[in-house]
Amino acid sequence: MGMLSRLNAWLHLWLGLLTGLVVFVVSITGCLYVFIDELKALVYHERLYVQPQQAAFKPVSEMLGNVQEALGPDYAVSRCDFQPTRDRSWVFRALDINPDGIGHWDYFRYNFRVYVNPYTAAVVHVENTNREFFQIVLALHTHLLLGHKIGQPIVAYSTLIFVLLLISGLILWWPKKWNRKTMRRSLTVKWGAGFKRLNYDLHNVWGFYLLIPALILALTGLVFSFQWVADSFYSVLSGGQPKVVREVPLSQAQQVPSAVPMDQAFVHVLTVHPDADMISMRFRDKDTAPFDFQVRKVKSRTYHFEWAYYDRSSGDFLSSYSTADLNSGEKIRAMNFDLHVGSFMGTWGKILMFIASLVCASLPVTGFFIWYNRKWGKRTKRSKLSRIRTL
User: Fold this and answer.
1) pTM score of the predicted model
2) How far is CA 311 from CA 169, 252, 289, in A?
3) Of these four, 36, 82, 146, 361, which has the most CB atoms within 10 Å of its CB?
């Protein structure tokens, strides 16, 4: 083995041991997050679904008033997510974060989801999202429950190292000579072998087969983690075009307090996008901020979207832009989340990313046992033999 090969093997070992626990936690929580919508629909059916009716939806301002009353004056509602189907509740969110907070519960000053029946405007359920299971899973995935200031860099740099480990692992896996024997050993798992051989095969063979999906998972995660990665991808994929700055149009400040413009804007969005999968609205405090709606046009595809802006004084439509208006770099960036969770390929893509994430979680475990067996296995075996001889 040459010097470069030994260096590669040494780096693969110790970088893997250094980041193994983080990679395991991030990967195993990623498995759950891939199917978070489907799991929530099963676990939280009573709060997510309502009895379909032929009646019109209540004005969103009435729902917002009931939500604010249920939460109290100390919590500001910042967003509403709704699916324009007849059987779903609308979800209002109140969220405030402390960027310098240490730990999950210090990072979120408060975090609530309030579920509302759109036919009656009645509050169905108030959820303290800070304590909700799937939010804990997401927080583990993004910052290990340590808060953004400490946890996010740990996850980000561990993911960056994981990309290097995948590349160095491919180099270690690559046979020195290609023949039938080396191909069979490198491409198949010997299920009937002992623990050491089986563990070695699971680490090397599964790691090779899931290399491309694992790289997609890691690289799309880096786009979320590092601005320089996002900028680099944009520069390459857009052919070096300058980054497009899309300015939010200004709205006329509302002179007389009224809920009518908000309700009119909601009705217009529902009329224009009756088949949308999800529509989200942000509630802004600034007087000149318009009502803005993010429309997800296709189920589980954030890539197919439209942003629409309405005047907060009159409720009139101001402007919009959608996926069709993006350049090549923006389109790939908009697809990043769909690539990360596999939804760009529908259910089969999500299954693939679930399996890939599960294999990523297994790599630190099987890698640890390979190191342990090489370092301590022979010593343990010799000690057992010496005890037998002394009997």
Assistant:
1) 0.89
2) 55, 6, 8
3) 82
